[in-house]
Specification:
The chain has 142 residues and is α+β, with helices and mostly antiparallel strands. It has five helices and four strands. It is elongated and about 50 Å long.
Length: 142
């Protein structure tokens, strides 16, 4: 990343603001909550203005409420910036809530593929048929 000190500071501040951390710029890592630390990790990726975001169990260590907040934040930012996101998760409901396509990989081979219709969502931003999709995913994993 190139630029003068003022430009780089502005980019960092924008990334922190996007992650709802505008008051945390001067905090030490030990002063951040688990959710804030996870947001900082995403902010580090944002400063590079990615076209592709690769996430490996990004919300696995978070409590349930923080996890939902982070899912919403990621989804909103993904829509705003137009990133393509590839996420590894073992959380079926998280996969259905955030995805437009789910791949089940076994022994390095794509075993099943689901396309998720996101044109009609419920109040929690899940596809209206999320229960059927989640049941099908659970059955495929057995």
């Amino acid at each position: 990343m190139q630029g003068n000190k003022s430009e780089l500071k502005s980019i960092a501040e924008k990334a922190l603001n996007d992650m709802q951390l505008n008051n945390c710029g001067s905090k030490w890592p030990s002063e951040l909550s688990g959710g804030q630390a996870q947001r900082v990790s995403l902010a580090r990726a944002l400063v590079h203005n990615p076209e592709l975001l690769l996430l490996d169990e990004p919300f696995g260590a978070l409590d349930a409420l923080t996890r939902l907040d982070m899912q919403d934040l990621l989804d909103n930012l993904r829509q705003k910036h137009g990133w393509t996101t590839i996420m590894v998760t073992h959380d079926i409901s998280e996969a259905v809530r955030l995805s437009d396509r789910i791949l089940m990989i076994k022994d390095g081979i794509i075993e099943k593929n689901w396309n998720i219709d996101r044109s009609q969502l419920d109040a929690q931003k899940r596809p209206n048929n999320h229960v059927e999709i989640e049941d099908e995913l659970r059955e495929a994993l057995q």
